[in-house]
């Protein structure tokens, strides 16, 4: 028997076991071709089928309307931090961003290379422990930008801010894409590095409304235009075939268990188990995020001292509960409970945390 642990890393992160098993089975001889998918031309009919199935799964699972393009790009979500302003800028118009933590700040830094950035709301005053309310974007902005889920602080948008109808809203959904039902029509652009909730590292999913593709100036480098990739169905150049294949397998699994509405229900149950544990711990465990901003995906918490946290992480490790250390910039602990984390994993963690509390109170 292969040993599998419960892996709470924030990303790359745990993948559905059936997807890994299928990949293992097909690794050396992909569907009778006598080749691994890694060895097959990206122009072959075998790869073409994988590619279109992956895109179809994304479209069906997220109920993406026809007027949106689905792109599979390289360079990580960090590359989209500059591709968003580069592709959406309009001369003399500012861009409006919400600052909910380090990933928002990184996006803002890149946007500054292309125009004036206005930060219309921020939760920096309380160490990014909440999602600002009543966010207002203005009519004279080129586009608006939010980070849908803040991986480091464990906060998540549960209601989407409304941008004026002419203003496209872009969201970085790297750490929560498909964690719950989302009406894609709220957005002009959605982007997400795959390595947390839908697949392995190496590919970034970009969902962009068709009419926005023509905004980009003609003298933009070819690879930096979404339009280039949209026109060639993300096959302008050699794409990350293997990563896309793994996304396909992981999304097939998601479909088989009932799709996004089913996983949303499970995600809410999983997150509740952990948050209830904190809330009933008499302050032994203290969640970082304010209650109304709690993330379904990244559950961040602190113990009384860094020493106790270290002990907790070490003992959890020994029990096969891996990756619970908080991000280096905030410390504490973090359990990333993405779609592929089984309920059993969260139950085991909760039992462990309760026992740890009893022994260390
Ligand atoms: N945005 C968010 C919300 C993230 O959590 C991360 C990675 N942790 C990134 C962007 C950066 O993604 P990448 O490493 O794919 O560039």
Summarize the structure.
This protein has 361 residues and is α/β, with parallel strands linked by helices. Helices cover 35% and strands 15% of the residues.
Task: Describe the overall structure.
The protein is built from nine helices and 14 strands. With 361 residues, the protein is α/β, with parallel strands linked by helices. The protein has two domains: 240 residues, Aspartate Aminotransferase, domain 2 (3-Layer(aba) Sandwich); 102 residues, Aspartate Aminotransferase, domain 1 (Alpha-Beta Complex), CATH 3.90.1150. The strands form four sheets. The protein has a seven-stranded mixed β-sheet with strand order 2-10-9-8-5-3-4, sandwiched between helices. A hairpin with a 4-residue loop joins strand 6 and strand 7. Helix 1 packs across helix 6 and helix 7 runs parallel beside helix 9. The radius of gyration is 21 Å and the shape is globular. The protein starts with 5 loop residues before the first strand and ends with a helix. The site of 4'-deoxy-4'-aminopyridoxal-5'-phosphate has 11 residues, from helix 3.
Low-confidence stretches: none
Radius of gyration: 21 Å
Distinct bound molecules:
4'-deoxy-4'-aminopyridoxal-5'-phosphate
Count of spatially separate domains: 2
Q: Write down the oligomeric state.
A: single chain
Specify the structural class.
alpha/beta
Number of strands: 14
């Amino acid at each position: 028997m292969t040993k599998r642990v419960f892996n709470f890393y924030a990303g790359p992160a745990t993948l559905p076991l059936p997807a890994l098993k299928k990949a293992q089975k097909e690794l050396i001889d992909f569907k009778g071709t006598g080749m691994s998918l890694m060895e097959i031309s990206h122009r072959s009919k075998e790869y073409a089928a994988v590619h279109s199935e992956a895109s179809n799964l994304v479209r069906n699972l997220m109920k993406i309307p026809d007027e949106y393009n689905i792109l599979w790009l390289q360079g990580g979500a960090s590359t989209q931090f500059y591709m968003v302003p580069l592709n959406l800028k309009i001369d003399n118009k500012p861009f409006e961003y919400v600052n909910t933590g380090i990933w928002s700040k990184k996006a803002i830094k890149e946007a500054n290379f292309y125009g004036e950035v206005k930060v219309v709301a921020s939760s920096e005053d309380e160490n990014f422990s909440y999602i600002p309310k009543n966010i207002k974007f203005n009519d004279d902005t080129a586009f608006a930008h939010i980070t849908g889920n803040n991986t480091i602080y464990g906060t998540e948008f549960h209601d989407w801010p409304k941008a004026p109808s002419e203003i496209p809203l872009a969201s970085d959904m790297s750490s929560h894409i498909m964690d719950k039902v989302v009406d894609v029509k709220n957005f002009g652009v959605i982007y997400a590095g795959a390595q947390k909730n839908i697949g392995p590292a190496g590919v970034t999913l970009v969902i962009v409304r068709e009419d926005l593709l023509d905004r980009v100036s003609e003298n933009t480098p070819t690879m930096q235009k979404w339009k280039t990739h949209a026109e060639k169905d993300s096959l302008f150049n050699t794409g990350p075939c293997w990563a896309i294949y793994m996304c396909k397998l992981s999304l097939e699994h998601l479909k088989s268990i009932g799709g996004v509405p089913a996983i949303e229900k499970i995600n809410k149950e999983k997150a509740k188990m952990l948050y209830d544990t904190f809330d009933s711990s008499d302050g032994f465990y203290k969640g970082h995020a304010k209650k109304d901003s709690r993330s379904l995906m990244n559950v961040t918490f602190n113990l009384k001292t860094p020493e106790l946290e270290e002990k907790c992480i070490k003992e959890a490790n020994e029990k096969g509960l891996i990756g619970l250390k908080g991000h280096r910039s905030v410390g504490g602990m973090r359990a990333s409970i993405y779609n592929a984390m089984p309920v059993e994993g969260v139950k085991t963690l909760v039992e462990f945390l309760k026992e740890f509390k009893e022994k260390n109170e």
